[in-house]
Amino acid sequence: MTRSWNKMQLLPVLLVEDNESEAMLIKEVLLEADPFIQLYHVHTLDRALLVAPDVKAALLDLNLPDSQGPETFYRFNRNFPEVAVVVYTGMISENLAVEVLQHGAQDYINKEDLLGRDGRMLAHSIRSATYRQRTLSENPALQEASKVLKLLLET
Question: pTM to 2 decimals?
Answer without folding.
Answer: 0.78
